[in-house]
């Protein structure tokens, strides 16, 4: 992925594809479950995000299947996608640790420290 920050929908799409290839509606459902309903993808925005992720080499087409007269495209995570997801998860965890430490410090100031 390029140097731009990973969006929350992209993060959850990559996470949804970790364990198995999925088609569009399968990705939408898995993202909703993983995010506990916070991220609700619309099909149009999903395919826009998938196009970007494919273009960045993070996701690729796994297969196409005809089902009830419609073509279903299944997508899978690439190794580059797995690496990008791992890096983003580490970045988010480091940010969370930093914020948590600062919150703890603010709640429990060292006694005798000069106040501003």
TrEMBL record:
Domain Transcription regulator PadR N-terminal: 13-86
Domain of life: Bacteria
Pfam families: PadR
Protein known as: PadR family transcriptional regulator
């Amino acid at each position: 992925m390029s140097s731009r920050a990973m969006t929350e929908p992209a993060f959850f799409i990559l996470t949804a594809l970790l364990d198995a290839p999925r088609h569009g509606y399968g990705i939408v459902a898995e993202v909703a479950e993983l995010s506990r309903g916070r991220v609700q993808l619309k099909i149009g925005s999903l395919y826009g995000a998938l196009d970007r992720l494919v273009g960045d080499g993070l996701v690729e087409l796994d297969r196409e299947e005809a089902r009830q007269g419609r073509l279903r495209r299944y997508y899978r995570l690439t190794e580059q996608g797995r690496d990008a997801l791992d890096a983003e998860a580490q970045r988010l965890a480091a940010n969370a640790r930093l914020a948590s430490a600062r919150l703890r410090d603010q709640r429990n100031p060292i006694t005798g420290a000069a106040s501003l």
